[in-house]
Write a structure and sequence with these properties.
48% strand; 118 residues; four-stranded antiparallel sheet
Length: 118
């Protein structure tokens, strides 16, 4: 059974930083491209960052230059370092497979709430 457990969210002032973690189990983590998604109230879920099994990264334009995704295959963990946070980054953040189709098949966990105050 695939388990992806997100942690590290919280309340932070604009300009601050947070580091999200996602611990994976039940999958061959090292061979899978992973992603961080977010969903703000009233908006669709969007992929903000993805990382391939070899560490190639890709970012949504809205977070490029501020967020950094990384992975530790030895720990089956993927991270999202979020810097220079803005109020518009406020959302529930989810970890899942980078492929939206596969992510949808797997389903979504509870995510971790990130709230950025102005």
């Amino acid at each position: 059974q695939v388990q992806l457990v997100e942690s590290g969210g919280g309340l932070v002032q604009a300009g601050g930083s947070l580091r999200l973690s996602c611990a994976a189990s039940g999958i061959s983590f090292s061979i899978n491209a992973m992603g961080w998604y977010r969903q703000a109230p009233g908006k669709q879920r969007e992929l903000v960052a993805a990382i391939t099994r070899v560490g190639t990264t890709n970012y949504a334009d809205s977070v490029k230059g501020r967020f950094v995704i990384s992975r530790d295959n030895a720990k089956n963990t993927v991270y999202l370092q979020m810097n220079s946070l803005k109020p518009e980054d406020t959302a529930v953040y989810y970890c899942n497979f980078a492929s939206n189709d596969i992510a949808t098949l797997r389903g979504w966990g509870q995510g971790t709430q990130v709230t950025v105050s102005s």
